[in-house]
Design goal:
By secondary structure, the protein is an all-alpha fold. The chain has 20 helices and two strands. It has a two-stranded antiparallel sheet with strand order 1-2. The protein is globular and about 65 Å long. The N and C termini lie far apart (50 Å). It is found in: Membrane. GO terms for molecular function: xanthine transmembrane transporter activity. Belongs to the nucleobase:cation symporter-2 (NCS2) (TC 2.A.40) family.
Length: 387
């Protein structure tokens, strides 16, 4: 029991990191937030079982499917058809997992040079900058600054027992400050929820158009998954694309999406937000992520507790987001330095430039498009001596 209590704050950090984005997707698309939390928790646990606990990643709601989900759930009032579309997404994941296992990831990896990996890792963090600063922190800058300052101070100068939970310290400090400022409306949020709320599930309803609109998007999220794994490799200093293998990672993500679809949730994907927590705390235990998954399942069922977390002001989330997303961006730069990428070569400089601008500038699927653009430039330009 004492070991569980020691790990609880570490797991809570991951819950706070993923919560906002995970529940935002169902709010935008008309799906059930409760079902989404339950699905993300179960999906993460299944993912860890498939990857044998060797990939400390959390799986939450994918933003790539917001448009088709909104179309079928909110406009057509046909959530069952949306479920069918998501099932087709999981099938695409399974097919590509099989392809990777047959062909071998080494061949895939050789086709992706460090000059592409580095900036792709960076834009995963930088693409979230607008969310952290403009959407969240700007709502109340003083709250965001207090939150950020508390997290940074804890990580650098805090006692050893607190240095492993700087994100949680920042969130609690920012929350208490916001509460004192009268910016927390906990009573209203709690009054609108019951103690126990069971998710609303939807049975699949055959629809070819839904399948055709969602299945191709799986290619986008798989590229993002690959980018997230590159980030994770840099953080934990171990190549998870080799052990347990990218095929297992794809299969686990596909199975998580299938489970989520059947439970009435959105597609699942690995979360950059939680990678930022790993980079900050330097605690890579998969048990902690699994603990966060269990908490997410409970939150999906216990309405009052979920209401408390939902009452956290956006500025608090923005304050810790500045730190988390910035850590991911810095990891990409570190990767290029350690790989000794020569940016005095024009070809390398062009690859990095194009990836950065497309990845940050494209409003949707920018990471995937930027990755493809960088690979095309690298392999099609005549100079093949770049690192």
């Amino acid at each position: 029991m004492s070991a569980v209590l020691r790990k609880l704050p570490l797991s809570l950090q991951h819950v706070f990191a993923m919560f906002g984005a995970t529940v935002l997707v169902p709010i935008l698309t008309g799906l059930s937030p409760g079902a989404t939390l339950v699905a993300s928790g179960l999906g993460t646990l299944v993912f860890h079982a498939i990857t044998r606990g060797k990939v400390p990643a959390y799986l939450g709601s994918s933003f790539a499917f917001i448009a088709p989900l909104t179309l079928y759930v909110t406009r057509h009032h046909a959530p069952g058809q949306a479920v069918t579309g998501l099932v087709s997404v999981s099938v695409v994941y399974f097919l590509f997992a099989l392809i990777v296992r047959v062909v071998g990831f080494d061949r895939v990896r050789r086709a992706i040079p460090s000059v592409v990996v580095g900036p792709v890792v960076s834009i995963i963090g930088l693409s979230l900058a607008t969310t952290a600063v403009t959407v969240d922190a700007s709502t109340h800058w003083d709250v965001a600054i207090v939150t950020l300052a508390a997290a940074v101070a804890c990580a650098i100068a805090g006692p050893r027992t607190l240095r492993i939970i700087p994100i949680l310290v920042g969130i609690v400090t920012g929350y208490l400050y916001a509460l004192a400022r009268g910016l927390v409306h906990l009573g209203q949020a709690a009054a609108q929820t019951k103690w126990i709320e069971f998710p609303t599930f939807h049975a699949p309803e055959w629809n070819l158009a839904a399948m055709a609109s969602m299945a191709p998007i799986a290619l986008v999220t798989m590229v993002e998954d690959l980018g997230h794994m590159f980030v994770l490799n840099e953080i934990i200093e171990r190549d998870v694309t080799r052990d347990p293998g990218f095929g297992s990672i794809l299969f686990g993500n596909g199975l998580a999406t299938l489970i989520s679809a059947l439970l009435g949730g959105p597609a699942e994907t690995t979360y950059a937000e939680n990678l930022g927590v790993l980079a900050m705390t330097r605690n890579f235990s998969s048990r902690i992520i699994q603990g966060a998954a269990v908490i997410a399942i409970l939150l999906g069922l216990v309405g009052k507790v979920s209401a408390v977390i939902q009452s956290i002001p956006p500025a608090v989330v923005g304050g810790v987001g500045i730190l988390l997303y910035g850590m991911i961006a810095a990891m990409g730069i570190r990767h290029m330095i350690e790989a000794k990428v020569d940016l005095t070569k024009t070809k390398n400089l062009i690859v990095v430039a194009v990836i950065f601008i497309i990845g940050i500038g494209a409003p949707q699927n920018g990471i995937a498009i930027a990755t493809v653009a960088g690979l095309l430039i690298y392999w099609l330009l005549p100079d093949r001596t770049a690192s």
